[in-house]
Amino acid sequence: MNVLVTCNENYIPPLKTMLWSLFKSNMGEQFTIYFMHNNMAENRLEELDLFIKRNGQEFYPIDGSGLFEEETTVNRYYSIEMYYRLLAPFVLPDEVDRILYLDPDIINLNPVSDFYHQDFKGNLFVATTHDYLTKWIQPINNIRLNTLESKGYFNTGILLMNLPAIRLSKTKEDIFSGIELNKNRLLLPDQDVFNHLYWDSILEADWRIYNLDPRYYSKANVVFPKDYNLEWVEEEVVFIHYCGKQKPWNKKEAYKYKLGHYYDQYEQEHLQGFPQSLDFVLEE
Question: Is the pTM higher than 0.85?
């Protein structure tokens, strides 16, 4: 299976935790990890290469630093790497026909094979909405992004990509134009551009299974404890997505939502099994 990840150096620790959860939850599967980065230091790339290959998987780094010829709109705490998932279909090797993009703030609990190998049913992507958060502002999003007929606002943290179909439908220039056209009204930049360009070409998956937000689960567990509980999470949920500004790896403040213990578990496992940096290995 092909997996796409992209981040800057600050997100390498959670990225490794996410990848460890992926490898552990899919024992026996072979992954090629495509990592798009912005001129990352060689020692950090070697660190990731070592970590991934020690787990029996393949690593394929791609430097995206030359993709944008001009300064590109990025706001708040976002980095340029967020746009790389949108450009990936035009940068990845032609023989890669499908790929699963995953944000680094995700934990994989159950096998991904069924999700990965599903039929696109003529669509370019499989993704989820978080409609419990966005349904009240959907009409505003539709006007803001010129998607007047769209009934959902899709999250870009987990994307299954139908690469040949995307390449036939769009070009890199379409992505650049989408960013430029919307630059003065982007709130969640890459997500806004994604919805602007692809809103009518996305097969919707169940976010409760494939993009579970602990903020929602914490409330649902109180209101519907028979339906939303840890037994259900461990048996059914494939991806937990730690959305929002508060992250479980930030040890300066306690993570206030439920399900943070899964992140802690996978983080401790991979740290106990592998050194945190290549420099540590070389010193040993």
Answer: yes
